[in-house]
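--- STAGE predict ---
source: upstream dedup step, 1 unique chain passed
mode: sequence only
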Amino acid sequence: MSTGQMAALRAELKELGKENKRLKMEREILKKAAAFFAKESS
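--- STAGE serialize ---
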């Protein structure tokens, strides 16, 4: 594997890590919102 390919893979891995973190935060927010609205409607 060339140095350029390694750099590209590292950059992609970094981006995926950032996206994964953001999606986990969004999922937590949605879980809390779902629990809130479930409580409100009962």
